[in-house]
């Protein structure tokens, strides 16, 4: 899937010449936590969010340093913090440059960028112009409905083959210690795991195969340090 399948196209924006008060009111009235900052022609120039407004003189939350940390801070850094705490215009406190994606960025790439950059939202741009925004909540949209069942129900043999194929593709199961047998849609997992998380992953792998009606966990746990085997209950 790509960003254009989940992004919000009707984006609430603000201009850089607007005031901080206007930005705060716009976020509160629309129950959003960030605003792309655009020029009149729609070009993205920055982003202002709640995090940009946490250290404010009005809130008495300006950054305070101990005397020795104050000696280490450069005058330029302190001046920058002063601007953020006292600036009245959006252009003075907004974050720039902004991490962006295109409408055709894959969801995986977008998530990687969010995690790496530690951001909650990514403006979507085409040739520098804002065309949408994708936030963490947008990733919930495809999860609102369970996956649709497609085609005819699989036979027991086909279910077992599908589970085996999925397990073989996963690094945590490539040791071949986990086996699945199927009878009338009921999957029995046999074999052993070296980590309890492998048990949960094997169950998830099986329950995602169409036609599975129940899963019986018969996996034993082997302590990799001492070789102790604990049989399934």
Automatic annotation (TrEMBL):
Keywords: CBS domain. The keyword Iron-sulfur does not apply. Residues 7-65, 94-149 form the CBS domain. SMART domains: BON (SM00749), CBS (SM00116). It holds the Pfam family BON. Residues 155-223 form the BON domain. This is CBS domain-containing protein. It comes from Rhizobium mongolense subsp. loessense. The lineage of its organism: Bacteria, Pseudomonadati, Pseudomonadota, Alphaproteobacteria, Hyphomicrobiales.
């Amino acid at each position: 899937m790509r960003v254009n399948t989940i992004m919000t196209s009707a984006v609430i924006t603000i201009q850089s010449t607007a005031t901080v008060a206007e930005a705060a009111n716009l976020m509160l009235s629309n129950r959003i936590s960030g605003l792309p900052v655009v020029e009149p022609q729609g070009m993205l120039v920055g982003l202002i969010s709640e995090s940009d407004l946490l250290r404010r003189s009005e809130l008495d939350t300006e950054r305070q340093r101990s005397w020795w940390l104050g000696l280490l801070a450069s005058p330029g850094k302190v001046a920058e913090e002063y601007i953020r705490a006292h600036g009245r215009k959006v252009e003075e406190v907004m974050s720039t440059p902004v991490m962006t994606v295109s409408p055709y960025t894959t969801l995986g790439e977008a998530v990687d960028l969010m995690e790496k950059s530690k951001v909650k939202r990514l403006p979507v741009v085409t040739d520098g112009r804002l065309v949408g925004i994708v936030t963490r909540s947008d990733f919930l949209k495809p999860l609102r409905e369970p996956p649709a069942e497609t085609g005819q129900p699989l036979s027991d043999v086909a279910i077992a083959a599908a589970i085996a194929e999925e397990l073989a593709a996963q690094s945590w199961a490539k040791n071949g210690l986990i086996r699945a047998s199927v009878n009338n849609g009921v999957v029995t997992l046999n074999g052993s795991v070296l980590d309890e998380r492998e048990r949960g992953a094997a169950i998830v792998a099986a329950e995602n195969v169409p036609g599975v009606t129940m899963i019986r966990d018969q996996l034993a746990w082997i302590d990799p340090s001492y070789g102790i085997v604990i049989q399934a209950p």
